[in-house]
User: Fold these one by one.
Assistant:
Number 1:
Amino acid sequence: ILNVEQSPQSLHVQEGDSTNFTCSFPSSNFYALHWYRWETAKSPEALFVMTLNGDEKKKGRISATLNTKEGYSYLYIKGSQPEDSATYLCASEEGAQKLVFGQGTRLTINP
Amino acid sequence: TAGITQAPTSQILAAGRSMTLRCTQDMRHNAMYWYRQDLGLGLRLIHYSNTAGTTGKGEVPDGYSVSRANTDDFPLTLASAVPSQTSVYFCASSEVNGQPQHFGDGTRLSIL
């Protein structure tokens, strides 16, 4: 079983500020790194899937980077808005399409 | 497009009873998964299926069984429910390796 760690566990950010958080994962047998956004009372929604070392993906104000050699990924949110409040999950895919999830970073944007 | 449909939305079940959680997808995805979500433990994989006719065990398979008779359906059965199986259960699907998983809305199950 892979050990996927996310930090911080929770984060409070002022509206308009930018923020970032970390996902670390074992780099052996790596296949892909997933990021999901999970809003309260909803189901997780895919943000990015990255496979290559140095990959960088962007969706609006949210972007992510990947370092497979050292086993970490960063998620960045630029100019946080209240609708960004959610739990952000990362998951490492080792193969056979199975994901191991971290416990998430709970982000709260203060208006 | 419906995506993934889970039923029931919630259920209260007496310990010792059996229960099947239903999951249906209309995206023709090969792979399907069952997770449970518990406070402080995140999402943990119970069972998965890479294609119709095959299933595999995840991180926490004990007390659960699955079947994959066709592409669209992936039911999860609790043969004899215990209180520790109280959880929120999510079904998900994906096309192939390296593709995002699509999640259902979850089933909240309470075992008393």
Note: The mean pLDDT of chain A is 92.
Number 2:
Amino acid sequence: GENVEQHPSTLSVQEGDSAVIKCTYSDSASNYFPWYKQELGKGPQLIIDIRSNVGEKKDQRIAVTLNKTAKHFSLHITETQPEDSAVYFCAASMHTGGFKTIFGAGTRLFVKA
Amino acid sequence: DADVTQTPRNRITKTGKRIMLECSQTKGHDRMYWYRQDPGLGLRLIYYSFDVKDINKGEISDGYSVSRQAQAKFSLSLESAIPNQTALYFCATSDKIPGQGLGELFFGEGSRLTVL
């Protein structure tokens, strides 16, 4: 079955620096790759997603890149701010052969002011 | 008011007790899910339902059962709770997007369960 690995598990950056979180997936049938942000005491919330027919997507300070050949995708946050501090989860989904969304283990991001 | 509401938000119980976690949504979505979150393990799918008469097992369904009482309500039961079911549980919903398969998940705020 699908397996999603996420690195690093913890990331600490200075305010204004960039942060990069990387994920790899195992099943080439996966075709949807969302990223969720979880703030303390809250449920995860989608911040950006990408489908397998696109290599890169950007939304203001966040961007996601996808390399289907290598089966990896990354989240890039530029000009980090203290409110970016949270746990970030990547996930890989497919809609053939039944429903499957597999999450990575999460990255705890600290942005130091 | 939250679109996806979970009750209770916190619960402490003893081994062997029956526990029900409830979820209701006002988003009008047909698809509902129960996930479990453990530190270092991410979110793992327990059960999911694509409509009122549809129930499907996820990755870790053993020891759990669900009931889809209505389009807006999806409950998770632990028939006989054990300590390794101590976790944070999330309900989620998603809409069906024609031609695009799976889409965004909308999560509740979680139910923290402790089994002593």
Note: The two ends of chain A are 41 Å apart (CA to CA).
Number 3:
Amino acid sequence: DVKVTQSSRYLVKRTGEKVFLECVQDMDHENMFWYRQDPGLGLRLIYFSYDVKMKEKGDIPEGYSVSREKKERFSLILESASTNQTSMYLCASRAGAYGYTFGSGTRLTVV
Amino acid sequence: SQELEQSPQSLIVQEGKNLTINCTSSKTLYGLYWYKQKYGEGLIFLMMLQKGGEEKSHEKITAKLDEKKQQSSLHITASQPSHAGIYLCGALKGGNKLVFGAGTILRVKS
């Protein structure tokens, strides 16, 4: 089974801090995605990557950046965390036409 | 606004009862996914539908995609406490991006 691992389940950071959320998949998938999930809004796509060093903006990229230096790892970066970035962050990977596999999520609180 | 509309937003059912969750799009759906999420956890893939009129079942959960490929329903037969969670429908946009509805919260009363 494909495994998508997010490094932290819970994270508390201060406003203005630079925050790194890490995601690793073990099945050589080309495509990786970062979503955030908020009550009543469902999952919204922040950024995705279809290959190493390739990235594309999703629907809500403002305040975020990403890094994909290796195929298995996709990092989400909050350049200067703000309270409105408190959310559940979910990473996913996908190969070809098959379903997306999601990580367990990171619940980030910015205080 | 959501590209995918899910209804109802939340649902409380008595254990043993059947229920249906709907997912509607104003555009033709190419690849409709259903996921389940336990509170605070990641998404678990349930089913994917691609063809108009397609129907898939897994245990007590059945998903259908209508002929026009603009609406999907998820039906649970004889609900159990283990069915409780958030159900999300997702659809492919631009070939590779998966966009989601807002989700339906299901609670099952014992």
Note: The longest strand of chain B covers residues 85-93.
Number 4:
Amino acid sequence: EIVLTQSPATLSLSPGERATLSCRASQSVDYLSWYQVRPGQAPRLLIYAASRRATGIPARFSGSGSGTDFTLTISSLEPEDFAVYYCLHRRFGQGTRLEIK
Amino acid sequence: QVQLVQSGAEMKKPGASVKVSCKASGYTFSDYGITWVRQAPGQGLQWVGWISASNGVRKYAQKFQDRVTMTTDISTSTAYMEVRSLRSDDTAVYYCARDDRYSAAWFADYWGQGTQVSVSS
């Protein structure tokens, strides 16, 4: 079974800064999606097929990568972006917690 | 508008079974699949599996293969997930989400509100 490893586990940044989150697969995958989870809420789809932004997702969110290495970038952090982020390919990564510095 | 409405909270004893429902509206049910995800208290997301409402194909996470069955009822636009032989570590919020009809976990764009399943003796 494919294992997804996310890094870093925690990322401490300030509003306005750029966030770069990584997801590495144990073997090559043909698609990957990214989700945001806020406390007490259902997950929210951000990116699918590695780089396609989901409907209604702000342009500051972008995804890239292929094969085994994928990246979610948030170009300029807004206060509402501080949450936990997960990548998914039939199994979730362990998540990256994005916290306010 | 697309909506997924899940059944209510459940309390079960170890060894019992639970069946969670997920009623879809606002789109053609058979044009999509349904992914199921859970989140235990203080833990990350776990992908449980996926079923195509188009052709009934299922994919289960290895961890759940022996204890989970996913089904759909196209006549009522409802998906179901049954978990058998419940253990205390199955205590979690279970979510359904609309997904692609051909590829498991391709995108899960609309989510249900979640169903709390608690397992305790």
Note: Chain A has a mean pLDDT of 97.
